[in-house]
Design goal:
Length: about 850
Amino acid sequence: MAVLKWGAAVLVGLAVVVALALAWLWPRGLSLTGLGWGHAEQLVYRQQGCELVKARGLNISGIWPLQLSADALAVSPCPGGGSAGIPALPKGRLSIAKLSYQDFPAIGVELTSLGDSLEAKVHYQQSRLALHWQLPDGQFTFTGTLEDVPPTQGVVSLSGSGLFDGKLQQLSAKAQSDGLSVAGQRLALVATAKLEGDAWQLDAQSRVPLAVASFTADWQLHGEGRLDGTLALTGSADVGSPLGPLHLAASSRDLQQASWHLGGQGITAQGTLSRQWLTVSSAKLAQAGGELSLTAPLQLALAGEGEAPISLAGQYQQLKLDSQGQLSWQPGQVNLAGSAGLAGRFEGQDIKAKVPFELSQAQLSLAPFTLAVSGDYGKGALVNSATQVLHFNQPALSLGLDWQYQGKTLNGTVTLAKDQTGLLGGIKADSSALLDKGGAAHLVGAYRLSPEPMLLAGSYIRFDEGLIQQNLLLPAELNLATNLLFKGGLNGQLAIKGQGLVRSDARVPAWQGQLTLAGQQGRWQLSIPRWQGQLGGDFQRQLQRWRGKVQGHLALGAGVSQALPVTFEGGELALDGNWQWPALKAAGKLTVRHASGLWGASAFQGGAADFNVDFDKALSANGSASLAGIDIGTPVTGLEGKASYQQGQWHFRDIQAALLGGSLSAKALDWPGSTPQPVALDDLNLASIAALQAKPVVALSGRVSGRIPMVLGPDGISIVGGELANTGPVAIEVLNVGSVQSLKASNTGVKVALDALGNLAVDTLNAGFDMNKDGQATLKVLIKGHNPQQDLPVNLHYSHQENLRQLLRSLRIGDEVADKVKAQLKEQGDKP
């Protein structure tokens, strides 16, 4: 019983001691609920009605020094001025599994109270922070590291100091990291923060440029405000990009939304950023003469996945782009599906297309589409007949080509690919017949689109032989000797060659040359080696047409004469003119000097001509021509006249020439021709004819005139129904030379006949003859006169067939007359 009483007394004493101790230590405003032995469900500390600290799940594991642990503890700032004060804490250690402050993530804390100071160790996942808090004035310092704090990976070192006396009065902190990773991007930064009362300031900047894909950025951030929620945040970044230097600026007056602006050379964009949305209210890109812009604000949810409509418009020169699509994203993937419309004019071509597409980071999918093109050089289309997928690491695209120009077609394929330098491809196409018959073209080439559009050297066009009007063009080929660039027009050099041209009356042998293009101008050159001929000139593009000059020269020789009706043996031809294309037209001046050669069996020399030539669907020419001389069996000199050419026919006018002491003239002659055309022979001197004899037998005097119907065939001259007659007295004298004396001695009748003809006064001399193109002639002569010495009338009929050219050239007229007289006398015997 006594023991029980002692024990009871001890317990009462302890209770009194504890009550007195609690009365001395317990701060005003501190309350406990759910109190048990070494345990309390909840602790609340209030000051002036403000709930500053609230803890749950308190456990006491030691009395002295006091050791407490709490499952959770929340600290809240108290409104109004002044400090809520810091309770006097006994020595001991407090472990808090979950400490929360406002909206910050809950952390684990271990507090060690030394009476006049407090040591705290804070941890959050892998992050650690050590804090020394001096009581009761509230000064504190801290150091630590933040490691892999979402959404970052890496370590941030922290250090700082401040004042907390129940309310955070001052703070000065610094954060630094050399290898922080955010969304896979390395971030090196340094940041400082200050707090004075309820005013704060934050400054941060990059230590190493931030690199994202092909972009780099040096950035800065500045913020200031008050703890009541008013703030001003500004940030900027200098960005290096494939589009050139960019500058990004952002600002905010609250933590709900920020405004931003992006600018650079030809680039502007602006919008807002909130906790839920990134909004691009406007954006425009202007590069290389082109422009692309948003036509409606683009709003993107800041979520792991989502979608948003996007609308774009663009323009390049007179070509316009209109695109509507749906942008969607999910972790690791971004897609844009829609269609792009092209319409307008580009490089003189009208273009129209609607291209359905689906774009991702790795590929571009194109649904079937038709790109229609039309312009001065025809119309056509590039056709995608089936869905094709272009993988960006190795893209490949094939399009059908369908083109029409002036009733001609070009069909084939165009391919697209990519190498380390950029986009490239090939083209293979065949045309329909380009000429009246045949002449199809076959195009095989390679091209690049980037870094600069061009058709690559080695590309070629081959032309089949074909017929245009009466001209057979033999196969020809055009090859790119250098890359053909398209910037500012066509720039490059082409080699051209052909096997020649054949027509019924002429032939052009193989030719070769080159074409040099320099934007809207150029130069071309052709040579015909077998003819020793050169042709070329400059040209330029004007008013949607190519216009240029042509100059050339040609040596007239046997090579030029192939398939011509004449065979040149010398001379020169020159051409100076101009042309335009398409709808080919040409005009110029053609001159011929010192031409010589053979026309059939007739030799000519001293040829000259001056012609104005014109080509407008067909060749025509007009001018004048002359020959110093042509031997048609007897020399014709001083031949001259006017001439014109059209549709393969020459028309000669006002022709005149000197012939045998008289003249030759014609009002009009057509060559080639098939009907007789009259040529007048006036006042031919018979003495001139007799003078042509190599061994004179006959002396002649007097003059004759007549009319010769000539057929000027493609390969020679023929005469049908030619007539000559004396225009006055004619005298014929048979000379007493050795050959005549021999004849007289051979036969009495011959002697009588030759004596009668020996001195003949002719009253009538008529000659009629025909001659084919080879000179084979039929000659009929009627002579009526008398011998004044013998007072003897004479009538002589003479008919003969022989090659007149050979006859005249051998000048055997006298001998032939004597032979014919002898033959007639033999038939008459001794009759007078």
